[in-house]
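Q&A log
Question type: sequence-to-structure
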Amino acid sequence: MMNSINKTARMAGLFYFIYVIASIIADLFGHFVFADASTTVNHIITHESLFRTGVVISLFSYVFFLLAAWYLYALLKPVNDTLALLFLLLNLGGFAIIVYSHLNLFSSLTLLSGVDYLKVFQPDQLQAQATLFINLYKTGSTIAQIPFGIWLLPLGYLVFKSGFLPKILGIFLIADFCGEMILIIQHFLLPGCEVISYPCWVIGFIAEVSLTLWLLIKGVKDQKPALADGHK
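Response status: OK
Response body:
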């Protein structure tokens, strides 16, 4: 039974790790996450194939993220099945929003692709529209962080209560939840104050990479999970 639990933990860690690496590669190729819209537009014009590859990698990275959530659900369901189902559904909600938001990237790509039916527009008009779509993608990805951020709260709680994962990982994840909420508020209410979000990025990196590496390398402790009150 422990072998089965460890296998589940390592599968969760593996898919989470693939998601993290694929996300980094996607932005290196596409320049659409940690870059302003004008930079992305110029990148599409000069390196269309790289941008296209980055967007496709990004889409599949979120599939791996969803698979990681599924294995975390299987791992933590014995602790509290209701909360485990909650964080799985939250992850699925974020997945749906972020995948839909990628349509804006493909729209900007189409606008700048030079197809004949768009020649009725001036190049600067097409670039302006592409910039709009890229900014819509960024807005959609921020909205996706609402369920993606909230899922960290039940996930962190279950990791903390599990008894087979270090409590510090649960604390990191709950801190990451707080950071994600600050990021969202800053983006929509204080868009000119990006400096507020910098510590939140650091906390998120530490929390999620720590969980990923622990699951992938260490697995779980050889003991039964601490059961939540009133749950199987």
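Response note: Residues 2-218 form one domain.
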